[in-house]
Amino acid sequence: MFINDRLLLHVFLPLVFCFCAIHSSAGAENNEVKNTLQAKDTLKNQQLSYDSIFAHGLSLLYTNPDSARAVIQPAYEKKLYATGVQATRSLNLIGASYHLQANYMKALDYYYQALELALKINDSMRLGNIYNNIGNVNLKTGNFNNALSMYLKAASIYETLNEIQNKSSSYNNLGLLYMDIANFSKANIHFRKALAGFQAYNDSIGIAATLSNLGALKRKTGDFDSAIYFHERAISIDRKTENKYGLCVGSQEYAESLLHLNEIEKAIEYYELSKTLAKQLHQYFHLSIAEIGLATANLKIKNYDKAMQNADSAMHLATLLDNISLKQGANELYYKILEKIGNYQQALEHYVRSVELRDSLVNQTKIHQIYNLEIDQLSIMGEVQRLEIQQKELLLSKKNNIIVFIIILFILIMAGAYLLYLNHNHRRKATHHAAILSLNEKKSRAAIEAEIQERKRIGQELHDGLGQLLTVARLNISVLQQKATLNEESRKELMDSAFNSVDEAFNELRNISHNLAPAVLSEKGLKVALEELANQINKNRNQKFQLELYGLDECKDNLVENMLYRSVQELLNNAMKHASANTFFLQIVKSELEITLMFEDNGKGFDIENTQISAGSGLSNIRSRVENLHGSIFVDSKENRGTIVTIVIPIKSSTNES
User: Which CATH number describes the domain made up of 524-650?
Assistant: First the structure.
């Protein structure tokens, strides 16, 4: 599925915990109010009233984020709160309501305001919660470095406060991050730490969320039996605790694993369950995801009418929510369905629209990075402000003109640094733009040269192989035609020779056709095609070809599959023909964001620095194909040491998709 939401419930666990602690203390504070002055009594009553409003908004958060926002936002804007802590919690909850609806720009805006206020009042607990939530937005939008930084800040704060339950949420989030970047061993470690923390506090919500994440991890590593085991445990806990939101999202994860096992009917059952729960909870975002899952399942069983109905529902919801990632997924579904039913014109239109929306998600990711720069700057400013307060306390009895001088100097330094930053940023953008133009020109030229060389090679193969065989066949037939007096034995010998030449021509034509577009690649996919290629090479006892393939069962992009297969062919040909290699190792790993190919041989290698790769050569053709798909290629080789070639092809840039 194009969006992997993986139980957003754990995202806001710190928000729920912090409210419970404050709300329980409100009752104790109210007992003290009765023994205080009337003015303080009024203030406390106002605070208790605002806590009640907050409690009502929090109760609506997962069932109806719009309603939760409608309760909290007016109270916050009218400044009914009595403390900075209440204001911070409100901003964080409003951000969470947008987060649940995948409106990440709005969510970041309110998280940013909450962070600014938390820094001002030095509220460590709230800072940890907000850093955690900002980290989740970065994870959803593919900013993994920033997400890691935010999670580590949150974990450090929880460690200092000895908040094990909240720290477990950070471990869970770190596990999601490492799973997204395909570091499955680290993801497993963090999920296990999170599970231990939640189990220590008997936190059923956290336990179910982590178990579901472990199921998704096992699915990605191909251990489907373990994946099903963890999903079923998570769903069992959510059913017992009547956690409808957890059950809604957990059912989607379970259904996705069932799809991989081709248990289509059962997958549809759980997608329908998720759909029902999403309707009850007014979770239109997850309702759209469920419709996309149902469309994918119906597409697998060739129920194209039903798949189209599901895709229409998903697109309607995506339009209603104005969510780019959902629109992109719905268009991708339209493309696949229309292609299957033979409506290639409309399929192409939806494919183009899907690519445009994916590019739009990339642009949003760049905007999110600006928010993180502002957040880092805000943290620095908060530290500076605290230092200034301490300095003022120490110098209060001294000359006031020293304080004024320090403040003015600080402002001048910041203003100068800001001007330098603007100047540097402008020059960097100009240089980057010029580099992009130059690179696009080189890529276009390389693509044309590669096409010319490919045509020359095809023509040469047809002329040298097929042409010669047909010429021999024609000569034999010509002799039979011209010499009618040939005896029966000579005639039979010539006829057999002509038939053999024609058979060899057919074989040569089949080999050329297979090299250009192998049937197994289009019929059974890249994984099977590579395995057959390896089997062919391993039939020769003097050669050994080892394969390691991960995640290729989900790769359905014909263009990417064809490029990878042709690149492997080219690398094998270079290694055998030019490097005299006889041992080859190929590893391909597919994650949610990219496909990584690594090819290694034991050939004689070459000096990269002193060897110029000419246009039309094998490596040049591979580089052209890779760059046309916005990928990257890295070559590591030395003489008498062999060669390692690494290719990275991006799949999508955002979300986790989320």
Answer: 3.30.565.10
